[in-house]
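Blinded run. Sample ID left blank on purpose so nobody reads anything into the name before looking at the predicted structure. Input follows.
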Amino acid sequence: MIKLIHDLFSEKNDVRQNISGYEKFEIPIYPSVSHGFPVISTDEIIDGQLPLINEIEQIMLSESDTLIEFAKLVIENYATYVHLLPASEIHHHHTAGGLFEHGLEVGLWSIKNAFEYCSNNTFCDDRPRWLFSAFLAGLLHDIGKPLSDYTVINEDGTIRWDPYSTSLLAWAKKEGISQYHLSWHENRKNRHKRFAVFSINQIITPKLNTYINKPGPMYKSALSEAIFGISPKDPLSQLVIWSDKESVRRNLLQPNNGAITSYVARPIEKIVFDALKKLAKLTKTNTSGAVIWRSEKSVFIVWNKAIQEIHNLVDFDQISSIPKDHNILADILIERGLAIPPNNIESEHSRYWTIYPEKLKGQHLVCLRVDQIELIFPNEPISPINIFLNIPPVEQARKKQTNSPSKFNHEHFQKELVAQIIAGFGHYIDGDVQVLSDNGQPTYRLKKKPTIKRICEYHNWSSSSIAMLFLSNIDGLEIDDEFILIKNI
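Blinded prediction complete.
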């Protein structure tokens, strides 16, 4: 099957293209391949954006040598902190290094706008500090994204970056990581503004804070309001908002939004669901042995079996790695809001659902649940089947009645049981059932073990103890170690 998968779906185009500054690093193109983000040095990241940085420094140089020194320091800190992270998932600056590039662009446009603003207002009497504050506000306007928008992990998903405590590059070096991946969070729009307060001091050092705040709190206050989104009508906030929109506009005007000439990191969840789509096409579903099951509202994946097929497909697509541990990968999909965890069971089982497909006659499966059916069946989905969650329906009915077997509807159960016996359950083998004569009344003698097994299968009961509980309370039924004898019914 794996050869068939490779022949049908392996990518023909494995061309790697480069952008200025990153020629010697393989940062692959979405959607064909992805090797994660390489851990390159701060200098190499900065070298990739030298035209922008040189333009910023030229403006600073026209004001003060001190600003040049400060600008180099903050750019280096920012490059070390955000490394090659993108600014968005599928919108603007979604390529590797996009967050750094976008910050530089907004910083540059903010300085240019700040110059024009100074010619008409007295707010910037201390022009060097005003310009530097404008540059900082633009550069760091998205500094909260590493905390709010995604989770960064190592190659096999076992180590996560803590952006509250250290830069991405420092984390990678400390852990001996050569490449990293990210997983995008759900409902993240504009949430990064609230997180910026926790990361800004990793970029703005005490020395820089002292410089900005020396004449008083005016510039520091304006800088904070612009970065944290507190006062959008404040003059500095307005400059940053316009500069942000201009950077986004120009980026989106690039051919294919940079997808041809730039590098893009492919999120882990996209890799996984692309593989699941292919798996759904190539393998059987909703039948015995299947790893993908579809109910009316959800898709259930037998995760411990599907994970190996996912890795096989990923390997054929020449994607270097996704987390090998199936629990870690499930956690990423749950954190992203793509998989739905149970909400009422113990923590060690908090990822997976126990399901009972009607077709399997009581057999249970342990699955990951996905409610967005189109993620796996983007076109015409397969027909749904009845899938019961956690507890088979007969046992649910029994629990609703009472915990006492004596109150169970014995008469209905007896009639159903005898009808099943007479019909032979449709799959009895010769010798399992004997019909004896007892004064004109039929007596049925059944072999105990196969009968109990088939009763459980028929009713979707998970254990023989449930069947024995009912059978032991039926009048006219005798049970010994080998046989079940039914008479006078």
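Unblinding after everyone has recorded impressions. The mean pLDDT is 75.
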